[in-house]
Write a structure and sequence with these properties.
The chain is of the alpha+beta class. 37% of the residues lie in helices and 16% in strands.
Length: 437
């Protein structure tokens, strides 16, 4: 409390909404919306105004509505986004610049919370959020995809729009930003055709032997007065988001590959983030501790000048790649979540078990020992050519009925009613056989 920042990045207001939606979907706990909790107060929680969780939600959306690019539904940049090396050097940009990634997060918050409200019988509260989501997606398509390529940032100056981190960018020299593209794919903000085009672009312009980079080039190093972005232009250390291979972002790329059903590429992307046997996958990787998660893969350039002029060596695999910060932030949790929910394909919600594995055919016959609701469970996988799309689910010899979710890119997840699963579970000796296309 005593060291709380006086302001926050433009994305911060969205995260509690996403988390609340995910909690409601997983728990079905509608009562939490009426729980009284305090707002922040400098003197302590007892001094703060109190309101229900839902009133907090309403106030958050009031803030979001106020922080928009004039004449649009696009979230303004504020003091930055996920990549905190790109805080604007000019305070005026906070109201006139837009991060495409923050716009995707806005839509994720709206859709997740709307779906959660419907799941607990509050359709009337979900409908306005769904309408807002459609408006956001419409402005995203209309304003942030010049020439069919998603921009990283857009600066709105009246009727004029200046694009940064885009082929039209004449300021930074950086043409592509992967994170905005990845999250746009995950949130279905792009059409299937646009998705395929952006995945091809990522593979061609942003992929390297150790994974996907944030940009196609590092930001120019200035070491003096900053012009557009703060730390990206002045940090001397070439690693993490400055060095461009930030593992969190690469894991979201892996998640996007699973979403569209590219099983071989998805599995390889997971392996690129796994330090065990890393040199069999990434030959340029230096020796690393195998028992921990690395937040980045850092090209071992002498300084930022060399990094900028010789950056092509990263993709050529001719510069050593060091493991970056160890076990930092949420990345290890993201990796574990992808393994459980996207690779093995099991996600529990309040009313259903979602089954949606994405596994390459070489692993046909894979067996996994795990547990469910405290009971032992052996998973077995029969994997066809596609490596995804559930054909059949058999628990302890009995076929489970399921509904199929909508996925615009492939056959979606199989949803099995929770009761149907629990009714067939035994105290021990359970087997779940999953047949994939």
């Amino acid at each position: 409390r005593g060291i709380r920042a006086g302001d926050s990045h433009g994305d911060v207001v969205f995260w509690p909404l996403v988390a609340l939606g995910q909690y409601l979907l997983a728990s079905g706990d509608a009562d939490i919306l009426q729980a009284p909790v305090p707002f922040f107060a400098p003197k302590g929680p007892d001094a703060g105004e109190r309101a229900t969780v839902w009133q907090h939600v309403e106030r958050a959306f009031t803030v979001i509505h106020r922080r928009r690019i004039a004449g649009t539904t696009l979230a303004a940049y504020g003091h930055g986004d996920w990549n905190d090396s790109l805080q604007p050097a000019d305070p005026a940009l906070r109201e006139h610049m837009c991060s495409a990634w923050t716009v995707t997060l806005h839509l994720q918050a709206l859709r997740t919370l709307a779906r959660a409200l419907r799941s607990i019988g509050r359709a009337a509260q979900a409908e306005p959020l769904e309408r807002q989501g459609e408006a956001v997606r419409g402005d995203f398509q209309r304003l942030l995809l010049p020439d069919g390529v998603l921009t990283g940032y857009a600066i709105f100056d009246g009727a004029d729009i200046r694009y940064l981190l885009h082929p039209r960018d004449a300021t930074t020299g950086v043409r592509y930003s992967s994170l905005a593209m990845i999250h746009a794919i995950l949130e279905d903000m792009l059409t299937p055709e646009q998705t395929r085009a952006h995945l091809e672009l990522i593979a061609r312009e942003l992929a390297a032997p150790d994974g996907v980079r944030l940009f196609d080039l590092p930001m120019p190093y200035r070491g003096g007065p900053q012009r557009i972005f703060q730390r990206a232009e002045s940090a001397t250390f070439f690693g993490r988001e400055i060095g461009l291979m930030y593992t969190h972002a690469h894991l979201r790329y892996a998640q996007a590959l699973a979403h569209v059903g590219r099983a071989e590429e998805f599995f390889r992307a997971l392996c690129q983030a796994n330090p065990i046997g890393i040199r069999s996958v990434v030959p340029a990787a230096t020796l690393r501790q195998a028992s921990c998660y690395y937040s980045s893969s850092d090209a071992a350039f002498t300084d930022r000048y060399q990094a900028r002029t010789e950056y092509a060596r990263v993709r050529d695999g001719t510069v050593p790649l060091d493991g970056g910060w160890r076990v930092y932030s949420s990345g290890a949790g993201i990796a574990l979540g992808l393994t459980l929910r996207r690779f093995l394909g099991l996600t529990w919600e309040a009313g259903a078990l979602s089954i949606d594995p994405v596994i390459p055919g070489a692993l046909d016959g894979m067996r996994v020992m795990t547990s469910v609701r405290g009971r032992p469970l052996e998973l077995t996988y029969r994997i066809g050519a596609a490596g995804c799309g559930v054909n059949d689910v058999v628990l302890n010899g009995g076929t489970l009925p399921f509904a199929t979710e909508v996925n615009p890119h492939r056959r979606g997840a199989a949803r099995v009613a929770t009761k149907a699963v629990l009714d067939r579970l035994r105290p021990d000796g359970n087997t779940l056989a999953i047949d994939l296309g």
